[in-house]
Write a structure and sequence with these properties.
- The structure is a single chain.
- This protein is α/β, with parallel strands linked by helices.
- The protein is built from 16 helices and 15 strands.
- Strands 5-4-3-6-7-9-8 form a seven-stranded mixed beta sheet, sandwiched between helices. It has a six-stranded antiparallel beta sheet with strand order 10-11-15-14-13-12, covered by helices on one side.
- Helix 10 runs parallel beside helix 11 and helix 13 packs across helix 16.
């Protein structure tokens, strides 16, 4: 019983938190202060038994006024939406913006657009609130195209842009055309009005666009295809999709009231069908976007959609969790551009334990390929190597007295990642003779996600005289290992073909 409690505590402690760059990460909104500054917000604030200021989250007027004053107070944005439209929470939406910023800064995918340092995004279904373009433009100076199909959403999105002239030139609101060709959901009252011919025509159109590969069952207006114009390029798209299949399902949470029309909240097949259509569109558009992304309301859909992305040939897939208070949402991102092979990060815990991350490897390259390359690398250096494929480790022990000068010389010239040619020239040469007598260490490789591997090194003895040797050796491994993996893999493939 006690162990179960410990597990629960551990899971709670490890739960993701608000994005560290989110304005509200360390400073959550102070309702009492906002009420004193904005008289229109004051009627919605009351004090609980613990003396803390609160609002009624089931009151749409209260949540809308909170969003209005937060955007004004913290972001200098003038904003409003009419009754019934979807009211976003500012901290949660900021998490999504900052995650996309992380993706762009990571340079996992090379920048391909011709906009220089300018970032251009596409907000699918921007809604009357237009929250993502407003936040992205005000926080980071990004430009946006925000799409929607209803007159109310388009009218109020454009008004929210006009009311903020300091960023209005960065945001374009685009109407989604072709909604009249939408097929109604099966079982709806309008289903009988659709002729067999129109249903066949639409299906053929979808097939010609390359969209029939996943069989989503989505019968809605265009999402990306038919909305993105020929020749356009974007760094990313983002989407807060309709999470639900019915309005009844949308109203199941009695603790909150965020509003939302049927067009914003529901879709035949729910978010799974909607995001699958985005995946279908991305298969055709491919390099038009550097990153395709979407938010998800159900974690159960994350694994299914990730599998679909690998099936259709995505080169990189990333996921995350957005947490704000008691609410969790999930993020899904993918690309069809070739990943940049690079070392993502390096971390030193102590002299006897080191690690670094390999990011952007081809999917066919796994932990075993890295281990085999490490084994070959140090075997050529004259070390004894013992590979354990079940635990994904290789133990390395120096067997001869090697010159430390070679090691120092090697470590001084390893600032940049070596090319495959460098590895070819180095193989079997004196620069590999970099092991000192009595040095014994283990290299472990762990797969984080497809294409991402964590490489760890740890000394097998506690001798202080040799502990300082691991760092320069691991630096050599870090700077050359990535291309070494590529080189050895190419050799293996070539030998296999010759045989």
């Amino acid at each position: 019983m006690g162990s179960n409690k410990n597990k629960k505590r551990r899971r709670t402690a490890e739960r993701p938190t608000t994005h560290p760059r989110n304005k509200y990460s360390d400073n959550p909104p102070d309702f009492a202060e906002l009420a004193s500054l904005y008289p229109s917000f004051k009627p919605f604030v009351f004090f609980g038994r613990d003396g803390r200021p609160r609002i009624d989250w089931t009151d749409f007027n209260a949540t809308r006024e909170l969003t209005r004053v937060l955007l004004l107070h913290d972001h200098r944005l003038n904003w409003w939406i009419p009754d019934g439209q979807l009211c976003p929470t500012v901290p949660n939406r900021s998490n999504y913006i900052h995650w996309i910023e992380d993706l762009l800064l990571s340079e996992i995918i090379a920048k391909t657009t011709k906009n220089g340092d300018k970032v251009r995004g596409f907000d699918i279904g921007t809604g009357a609130n237009c929250i993502y373009p407003l936040l992205g433009a005000s926080l980071l100076g990004w430009s946006f195209v925000g799409s929607d199909m209803t007159d109310v959403a388009l009218e109020w999105a454009e008004k929210n842009v006009r009311d903020n002239p300091h960023i209005s030139e960065l945001i374009e609101i685009r109407k989604v055309e072709g909604g009249e060709n939408t097929l109604p959901a099966k079982g709806s009252n309008n289903e009988a009005l659709v002729s067999t011919k129109s249903e066949i025509d639409l299906t053929e159109d979808m097939a010609r666009e390359g969209n029939a590969c996943l069989n989503t069952g989505y019968y809605g207006p265009p999402i990306l295809l038919g909305v993105v114009r020929d020749g356009e390029e974007f760094d990313f798209c983002m989407c807060n999709p309709p999470f639900f299949e019915t309005m009844k399902e949308a109203g199941l949470n009695p603790k909150t009231s965020c509003g939302g029309t049927a067009a914003e909240m529901i879709c035949p097949g729910g978010e799974k069908a909607f995001v699958t259509r985005i995946i279908e569109d991305s298969v055709t558009l491919r390099h038009t976007f550097r990153w395709y992304t979407s938010m998800l309301g159900r974690k159960s859909n994350l694994k299914l959609l990730t599998s679909k992305l690998w099936e259709v040939g995505a080169t990189v897939v990333k996921t995350t969790e957005f947490v704000q208070g008691q609410t969790s949402r999930w993020g899904l991102a993918w690309s069809f551009l070739p990943p940049v092979k690079k070392i993502l990060s390096s971390h030193v815990t102590e002299k006897s334990n080191l690690s670094f991350m390999l990011e952007g490897l081809e999917r066919k390259l796994g932990a075993i390929h890295v281990l085999q390359s490490v084994e070959a690398y140090f075997r050529d250096a004259g070390a004894l190597c013992r590979l354990n494929t079940s635990s994904f480790t290789v133990d390395i022990t120096a067997k001869d007295d090697k010159s430390d000068a070679n090691l120092k010389g090697e470590s001084q010239n390893c600032d940049g990642v070596a090319s495959c040619n460098d590895v070819r020239e180095a193989s079997g040469s004196s620069c590999l003779n970099c092991l000192s007598n009595d040095l014994s260490f283990r290299v472990s490789v762990f797969q984080q996600t497809p294409g991402t591997l964590l490489v760890k090194g740890s000394l097998q003895q506690k001798d202080g005289q040799v502990s300082g040797l691991l760092s320069p050796i691991f630096q050599i491994l870090k700077t050359k290992q990535l291309c070494s993996v590529c080189f050895h893999n190419e050799c293996n493939e070539s030998n296999h073909q010759e045989a």
